[in-house]
TrEMBL record:
Gene3D superfamilies: Medium-chain alcohol dehydrogenases, catalytic domain. Residues 4-342 form the Enoyl reductase (ER) domain. Its cofactor is Zn(2+). This is Zinc-dependent alcohol dehydrogenase family protein. It comes from Albidovulum marisflavi. The lineage of its organism: Bacteria, Pseudomonadati, Pseudomonadota, Alphaproteobacteria, Rhodobacterales.
């Protein structure tokens, strides 16, 4: 099979012909239909993720068709179209039994701890506990874009912060997570302020339903949000994983506000200096979130399939496997609106 292989940090991915993956007894092998290119993949590419050992195949936002089925798999057969969360939980430990699969202590993470989906095929372990069937009408590119950004945003907004209709949401960062949060929050009935430093991305957010935008390069973002919302946001989402926006997100909240850290802190940002006086005096709640349990997929897929939310504005570019290096390098600076999805694995 063809695969894009990381052989050196910050080096162009090497397109190689690798052996097809072996099918796990409890898993399946998928023919990959599409795979998103995510900022988390950029962390792997830069060497910021300690789980990644070279050589390595990145890619964790994927959907595909079942080609092989392990002997211990009962729910899936060859030809099924499926999607998997990027955290593959064991399904049997106390955390999984409580519904908290994203905290499974033996989790497998394709693209990080195991070979990922920047390839024509991928082995997916623990298939019965993790795979979800795709609606027949869902385009593969959109399904792949769900795999990290949309699912994480959905779980952060509904499973962690419990965003309610009519509440104000402030989103710091208008990339894949930020745009997903905007579209989902509007479907819930919330009002949304988007914050970024790229005017083009703020214009894109307005075009897709944002009630207000703030350019943090030219204004005091927390104060602007307090002015727009009449006292501060009820919920804030940090979608970049850096100290400056995390601090601003906390300071943008009203009393009893809830802040969700979705952006992945890596490198120098793993340690941050935060305004704990604001947390204390405002009686704020700070949630970390990462991924979404597989049992929550049907509610999100039903919302999409039923026309409750249109996520097509997420996808800006459908690219070839050989374009992945260029897409990863682009995360070094301000990126254009929307996300890239690999849909052509032949070149």
């Amino acid at each position: 099979m063809r695969a894009a292989v990381l052989t050196g940090f910050r080096a162009p991915l090497d397109i190689q012909h690798l052996s097809d993956p072996e099918c796990p007894e409890d898993g399946v092998v998928l023919s990959v239909l599409a795979c998103g290119v995510c900022r988390s993949d950029w962390h792997s590419w830069t060497g910021s993720d300690p789980d990644v050992m070279l050589p390595h195949v990145p890619g964790h936002e994927y959907c595909g068709v079942v080609e092989e089925v392990g002997a211990r798999v009962s729910r899936w057969k060859r030809g099924d179209r499926v999607i998997a969360p990027f955290i593959l939980a064991c399904g049997t430990c106390p955390a999984c039994a409580a519904g908290n699969q994203t905290t499974c202590p033996t989790q497998i993470i394709p693209g990080f701890t195991h070979p990922g989906a920047f390839a024509e095929r991928i082995a997916v372990a623990r298939a019965d506990h993790n795979l979800t069937r795709l609606p027949e009408t869902m385009e593969p590119a959109l399904a792949a874009a769900l795999g990290c950004r949309v699912t994480t945003a959905w779980h952060g907004l509904t499973g962690r912060a419990a965003l309610q209709p009519g509440e104000w949401l402030a989103v710091f960062g208008t990339g894949g997570i930020g745009l997903s949060a905007l579209l989902l929050a509007k479907a819930i009935g919330a009002r949304v302020v988007m914050v970024d430093v790229v005017a083009e991305k703020l214009d894109h957010a307005i075009a897709h339903g944002a009630d207000a935008v703030v350019n943090a390069a030219s204004s005091d973002a927390p104060q602007a949000i307090r002015d727009i919302t009449g006292g501060g946001a009820h919920v804030a989402v940090e979608a970049l994983g850096i100290e400056q926006t995390t601090v601003s997100a906390l300071k943008s909240l009203r009393k009893l506000g809830r802040m969700v850290q979705i952006g992945m802190p890596a490198g120098k940002h793993t340690q941050m200096s935060l305004p704990m006086d604001a947390v204390y005096s405002g009686q704020l709640a700070l949630f970390g979130t990462r991924g979404m349990p597989s049992w929550r997929y049907p509610s999100l897929l039903n919302l999409i399939a039923g026309g409750g939310v249109d996520l097509s504005p997420l996808i800006a570019r459908r690219v070839a496997l050989s374009d992945a290096s260029e897409e990863l390098a682009a995360f070094d600076g301000p990126t254009a609106p929307g996300v890239a999805v690999i849909t052509d694995f032949s070149r």
